[in-house]
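--- STAGE predict ---
source: upstream dedup step, 1 unique chain passed
mode: sequence only
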Amino acid sequence: MAKKSAVARNLKRQRLAAKYAAKRAALKEIARDTEKPVEERFAAQLKLADLPRNSAPSRVRNRCQVSGRPRGYYRKLKMSRVALRQLASHGLIPGMVKSSW
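--- STAGE serialize ---
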């Protein structure tokens, strides 16, 4: 099990990223638009830099929903390989069987 503080910090980052997503996208659009004057684009970049650092989606870490583990994460299942194996061994994932050859 991961540290509760690390999981809580990541949840906070997810909430901030969702909260500021629209504002961040609008400012990025202004900053990238070459038709706009340079002063306006620079002002948009400064406003973007003033947003909270943890509101950037790149700071959110993919973590297992079961254990909070940050490594060995399957995006499709939203869980780590360790948790997946454990649940499959207990027969809690329908259709998943242990392979042998």
